[in-house]
Amino acid sequence: MISIPLTLDDIVILFATIALSLIASKIIYRLIVISAKKITTKTKTILDDKIIDAIENPIHFALIIAGIHIGIEYTHFSGLPIKSTIFEIAVILLVAYTLSKLLDAMVAWYNEEVVVKSKNKMEEVISTAQRIGQIVIIVLAGTMILRSLGIEVTPIIAALGIGGLAIALAFQDTLSNFFAGVYITVDRPIKVGDYIELENGQKGYVVSIGWRSTQIRTLSNNLVIVPNSKMAQAMIVNYYAPTKDMSVVIPCSVAYDSDLEKVEKITIATARSIQKKVKGAVPNFDPFIRYNTFGDNGVQFSIILRVAEFTDQYLVVHEFVKALHAAYKKAGIEIPFPQRTVHFVDKKVSGR
Which CATH number is 246-331 given? Predict the structure, then answer.
């Protein structure tokens, strides 16, 4: 065991240099950081503001580490065999911390400035990239610290490779959901806030797209949890893509003795009124009807309206059916109902 004689002067010098480094960090903060902030507030971008905020704490820590290092060099503490190792680890941690803060600053700038201006909702993609970046920084910092401690990294990596294979087999479903979540996030067939319908008939708003599952909130305010692997393979109807507004087709029929020109005129007039006054309808859309077939009980046709989004159709159709029923009743137009004519045969008359 190495014995290092320490004096009172050594302790005084060490604490003095630490105190001076703290004072220096405050002075440099005042001279550089605050001055830089005044300059960055005048620029059009917020990127420089985010960077200054990110490096503020690392600058304090760097000056403190430097002060401690200088203090040790001027005392008998410099003879400690692990001095250089401790200092090297401190620098590695400081660099990793700084990179992490800069990554967060870049993501914050991108979400607040680039995404908003381009109107391109990329929060999920950026969040995924941010998490991956943080993991890379941690892994690299951990590897460098192990090397500083004299621990050979190659056998550990090889062991982790074999262990990783075993873990991958054991957590196959979990990893499948993870990579499916990455695919959904990057490819963006759906995004948070979209109203979708799955192939099994489940409908609802996308609440979140996580690492393992996607959450869908139904209109009855229940959550449907779908594993990402299932979601990536499912046939999905996205009612918000490419746009939220959509057509609503309402089937109807009138009696065969109806004046079809009159029917069309009254139907379109009623639909136009609904499009302009009912909340959720697209006011500038011109509705229309199309006769399509001769049914069992009357002439069948469809009325096409347009709503701002999927859930608006319920109120619009509700009001339209009421208004059209009243309009047809006033005009004497009959809406037929299913009928069946049954013929009875008298066996005696038929000779049986």
Answer: 3.30.70.100
